[in-house]
Amino acid sequence: MAEQAYEFENFPRGKLPASLTRRQFFSGLMNEVRAFAHEEGHPVYRLDDLGDLPDGELAQVRPVLLPGCETFQEDGYVWGKTPEGRKGVRLFPVDSPAAFVLEQFDGEATIIEAARRLASGLGWEKKRAFAYVRGVFLWLVLARLSVPGAEKKRNQKI
Question: Radius of gyration over alpha carbons of the chain, in Å?
C-alpha cells in the first residue's frame, strides 16, 4: 500500500461502516456487551457512532484492545488478529507513528493523552497528533480490535 494510506490524521468523519456477517454480528455483540457494560456515570458508546463523536468527547475515550485480540509484527508491518479471525489484518508499517500510538491503547491513557505524547515525541502540532490518534483508534475499531474503555477523567482540553 502507498504511504498515504497510513495518513491517519485524515480519517473521515461520519458513521463507521458496519459490514458484518451474521456470525460476526453475534460474536461482536457479545464483545460489545462486555466492552460497554458500564458503571454509573460512564458513557456508553455505539461503535458505529464513534466516527461522529465531537473531538472533546472522543478525547476522553480510553482505547483498549478487545480481550483475545493480538498484535504482531511480520514483514515490516504491524498486524492485528481477532480471536475468531483465521488470519491477521495488516494494520500499518512497524516504523509508523501508529505503532507508538497502539502502545498507548492500554485502557489507561485517553486519546488526548496519547495525542500529547505523540506530539511531544514527534514535534507535531497538537491538533495534528490528536487527528492522527483518532484515526488510528477508529481504524482499529473497524478492524474489530479496539473499543472505548471506561472513562475516568473529564474536560481535558485538546
Answer: 15
